[in-house]
Amino acid sequence: MPDFTTAPAWTAIFLGLFALFAGIGEWRKPGHWERMLREIANSPALQVVTALVEFLTGAIVYLANPWASPDWLSSTFSVIGGLLCLEALAILAFSDIYTAFWLRRFGPLSRLWTILSIGLGAIAIAVGIVRF
Known about the structure:
The chain has one domain (7-129). Helix content is 85%, strand content 0%. It has helices at 7-28, 32-42, 44-64, 72-129. α2 (32-42) packs across α3 (44-64), α2 (32-42) crosses α4 (72-129) and α3 (44-64) crosses α4. It is globular.
């Protein structure tokens, strides 16, 4: 049986790195996330690929971090993994509605989402690092 005791820490670090660098990329070149969403909204192939990648990522996060754990971080990532899977299913079934919903929120709140991504990424990395 593999040892998953460090799974929550590694999950925090890897997802934190992703969020941090995605936020930095959007900060450097504003509008990339909005263009990405528009491309996904206009392409059924990208909708399926996006949903598949998000579903697999969510499943891995969910399965590596048991829900019934005394560790709060493991339980938190289990919920996040489940939410990623649900979002992937929403993209598959309702991508026209779902992407339109997010496109309306990106224009005026673009900088806020960027700051939130950078901040949450940095916090997740810090939480993961202190676990070692």
